[in-house]
Design a protein that fits this description.
The longest helix is centred in the last third of the chain and has 24 residues. The mean pLDDT is 96. The strands form three sheets. The chain has a seven-stranded mixed sheet, sandwiched between helices. It has two domains: 123 residues, Aspartate Aminotransferase, domain 1, CATH 3.90.1150; 222 residues, Type I PLP-dependent aspartate aminotransferase-like (Major domain) (Aspartate Aminotransferase, domain 2, 3-Layer(aba) Sandwich), CATH 3.40.640. The protein is an alpha/beta fold. Helix 9 links the parallel strand 6 and strand 7. Helix 12 runs parallel beside helix 14.
Length: 370
């Protein structure tokens, strides 16, 4: 028999439970014998409008040069992001999705024996990148499904090197008050890095939008991560960026893989930044769809967590069983039992017809169980 090489990996690697993504349409089609075009996927917080026409045109042009390595410094994208958000180019770090930024932060600042703090019910990747380094994750109990900032401050020890905060939070959709978050940052010791994950910022109304980029002048221990996977619709291309003090961005760039953002993704992201109309249509569709789904859940007698993202988590008994029944109806949502929410399911906001299909299937399942 070949030797068992698993023991050669460090114990903290062997203990990792791999991230489970939302079920793909093609997989469900194979499992259930369904036609892919008859399946509705509302599981992964993707943009139901697809991508910007400007991004599609840019991608087609970029295809002509795929025999060449991409620009490892993301010059055009760096220029576009810095101008869009009034940032210094050297403050930026680009990644293979914002998940890459989270991992770069962990690799740059965590080592075995140190601790990272994150909230219960927060994005699973925080725990994964912490454990992959061999650092210790400290989970702070949630407050109304969101971050308990006071408890997170109380959890700081001499071993704390990093704090992860998702705002809005995934999978619960909760949003922190801006002044409370600013006060928290001022209370965190300056030798602790705070990673502020703002993947869903484009879905916030103007009055609730983040002001974190302006806070960078005050906090050189702050890293902000953003993504093109959600409102910009580029989930399949994997491109995101981090913003930090120049010295901090330099540390992340030292551990970043060369050519980690492909040329097609870079071109699409540049074009997407120039299409404000597409983002505005995305926001409007999400607002209408959120109302459609939450009203529908209310009519079915189901409670939900008010959300500021492009998804909503709702309470339903036997969440795992209901998830399976929805699959049989050709509707994919996201179980969140691994977030310590076994009686909740998360549904992404889709097109009007997709939302209606989900609500109709859920109503039929509930009525069959009576």
């Amino acid at each position: 028999m070949p030797p068992n090489l698993q023991p050669l990996a460090p114990p903290y690697i062997r203990a990792i439970a791999p991230y489970l993504p939302g079920k793909p349409i093609t997989e469900l089609a194979r499992e259930m014998g369904l036609q892919p075009e008859n399946i509705v996927k509302l599981a992964s917080n993707e943009n139901p409008l697809g991508i910007s026409p400007k991004a599609e045109e840019a991608m087609q042009f970029a295809l002509l040069d795929t025999a060449r390595y991409p620009d490892g410094n993301c010059f055009a994208l760096r220029d576009a992001v810095s101008k869009k958000f009034a940032l210094a180019p050297d403050q930026l770090v680009f990644g293979n999705g914002s998940n890459d930024i989270l991992e770069l932060a962990a690799r740059a600042y965590l080592v075995p024996g140190t601790e990272a703090i994150y909230s219960q019910h927060a994005f699973a990747v925080y725990a994964l990148v912490t454990q992959a380094i061999g650092a210790t994750g400290v989970v702070v109990p949630a407050l109304d499904f969101g971050h308990d900032l006071s408890a997170m401050l109380a959890a700081i020890t001499a071993k704390t090197r990093m704090i992860f905060i998702a705002n809005p939070n995934n999978p619960t959709g909760t949003l922190l008050d801006k002044q409370a978050l600013l006060a928290f940052l001022r209370a965190v010791p300056k030798n602790i890095v705070v990673v502020l994950d703002e993947a869903y910022d484009e879905y916030l109304p103007a009055a609730r939008k983040s002001e974190s980029l302006s806070w960078l002048a005050e906090f050189n221990n702050l890293i902000i991560s953003r993504t093109f996977s959600k409102a910009y619709g580029l989930a399949g291309l994997r491109v995101g960026f981090g913003v930090a003090a120049i010295a901090v961005a330099d540390m992340l760039n030292r551990v970043r893989q060369p050519f980690n953002v492909n040329s097609i993704a870079q071109a699409a992201a540049v074009a997407s930044l120039a299409d404000d109309d597409f983002v505005a249509r995305t926001y409007a569709l999400n607002q209408a769809g959120m109302l459609q789904i939450t009203q529908g859940l209310g009519e079915l007698g189901l409670s939900f967590i008010p959300s500021f993202g492009n998804f909503v988590s709702f309470h339903i008994e036997n969440g795992a069983g209901i998830y399976q029944k929805l699959l049989q109806h050709g509707v994919i949502v996201r179980p969140v039992a691994n977030y310590e929410m076994p009686d909740y399911l998360r549904v992404s906001i889709g097109l009007f017809a997709e939302n209606a299909r989900f609500l109709a299937a859920l109503k039929e399942i509930i009525e069959e169980a009576k």
